[in-house]
Amino acid sequence: MSHEPLYDPDNDVHDIVLALPQAMERARKVLDEKSAANIHDQDEMIRAAYGLQYVLRDLLASCDALLGGRK
Predict the structure, then answer these.
(1) Domains in the chain, number
(2) What one-character-per-residue DSSP string does 20-38 give?
(3) Considering the domain boundaries, does residue 7 fall inside one?
């Protein structure tokens, strides 16, 4: 089986940066949803990891935009 990274910066670009309150609300919502995932179910864990890394990247992009950091 070949390795496929969870995040590929060449293909997984976030074009839209949410305002920080929206990004925080979305991150909280996904965190609540994914916290119910069955740790013994590989598919659920993969979906949780992907969903959480996605909203974390959104949240960091919003913080960077607010603080003048990298995009």
Answers:
(1) 1
(2) HHHHHHHHHHHHHHHTTS-
(3) no
